[in-house]
Amino acid sequence: MNFPDYRPRRLRANENLRRMIRETSLSVDDFIYPLFVAPGEGFKKEISSMPGNYQMSVEFIVEEAKEVRDLGIPAVILFGIPESKDEAGSGAYDDDGIVQQAIRAIKKEVPNLIVVTDVCLCEFTSHGHCGIVREGEILNDITLELLAKMAVSHADAGADMVAPSDMMDGRVSAIRAGLDANRYDNIPIMAYSAKQASAFYGPFREAAESTPQFGDRKSYQMDAANSLEALRETALDIEEGADIVMVKPALSCLDLIYMIKKEFGYPTAAYNVSGEFSMVKAAAEKGWIDEKKVALEILTGIKRAGADIIITYHAKDAANWL
Ligand code: PBG
Predict the structure, then answer these.
(1) pLDDT digits over 180-202, tens only?
(2) CB 220: neighbour CB atoms within 10 A?
(3) Which three-class secondary structure state does DSSP give residue 206?
């Protein structure tokens, strides 16, 4: 049908009409809220490039977890800043490590909140890379054992789901095998499948103190220019046992979210990363944009592209706004 018979504006005349034909609706059910746990007691420090987000010691993390639950957000994803770092990232798979302590504390006080853990060595290695380094090279296969150990120690502490973000080849099957061998066959894996070597992670690296001390992550994270490779990466993760696949970042990768959801029909997560959040915050602080409207528009766009799950630093704000 053509104009004048078809007039799209007829259904835009007022908010009730618009609500009736709205195709995408955002819900708190969609969100995962990231938390950064740090050692010590009574410690809470704002991340300067991510206003409203903090590095927090365990007791504050528990308070935050309660707030997240009370807002109706179903899950958090945990990142850790360890007391000390070493070449092997041993704090990552220490049963008394900072993330393991936080998992136990949250599960004790807020048992119904889903605790997802980021499985990656970069926050725990002195060199800041996501794998073991030898002579300047990031080694793949040796790293896999450590990632599996890390995932099992998270599960031992009570984690509900693990999310490998390291981008080593074969990590999903290594982690699946490690979990299964320890009778954690019911713990799902949310794999960062199409994770790009992105400049949008800058503020996160301040938050997690995980900036690589030499070089960059381009030998393991994906080239942002590639979409067919993103499909292959995702296919591999699914074959290896991923239960949920993820695209990261989100805003510059809406095409990948769409393609991956369509191609595989798997539960699809998108990480609305730190830099995406910080840009909105900074522009809003300058009075250049309306934070609430822009953030909700971005999150709706990510969902419309096909994301079932959105990891976002705007989760608490969005829950309040919705
Ligand atoms: C760990 C990890 C990173 C992010 C999530 N997990 C940083 C990186 O890969 O350098 C980034 C999240 C964000 O920017 O919000 N590998």
Answers:
(1) 999 999 999 999 999 999 999 99
(2) 18
(3) helix
What pLDDT, on a 0 to 100 scale, did the predictor assign at position 206?
A: 87
For 271-311, where are the alpha helices, taking DSSP H only?
A: 274-285, 291-305
Q: Is the CB of 189 under 6 A from ligand 1?
A: no
Q: Is the dihedral of CA 24, 27, 30, 32 positive or negative?
A: positive
Provide the residue type at 296 as one letter.
L
Using CA atoms, how far apart are residues 222 and 237, in angstroms rounded to an integer? Answer: 14
- Identify the H or E element spanning 31: strand 31-37
pLDDT digits (tens, 9 = 90+) for 307-320: 999 999 999 999 99
- Give the relative orientation of helices 141-157 and 98-109 as an angle to the nearest 10 degrees: 30
Instruction: Say which CATH class 25-321 falls into.
Output: alpha beta
Nearest residue (CA) to ligand 1, atom 10: 201
Question: Using an 8 Å Cβ cutoff, are 126 and 86 in contact?
Answer: yes
- Best substitution site from 31, 33, 201 to test ligand 1's pocket, by max atoms within 8 Å of Cβ? 201
The domain limits of the chain are 25-321
Write phi, then psi, for 265 (nearest 5 degrees).
60, 25
Q: Which residues of the chain have pLDDT under 70?
A: none
**Cα pseudo-dihedral 245, 251, 253, 257, rounded to 10:** 40
Residue with tokens 């704000």, as numbered in its chain? 317
60 lines ligand 1 (CB under 6 A): no
User: Residue 78 pairs with which residues in a beta bridge?
Assistant: 35, 117
What's the pTM value of the predicted model, to 2 decimals? 0.97
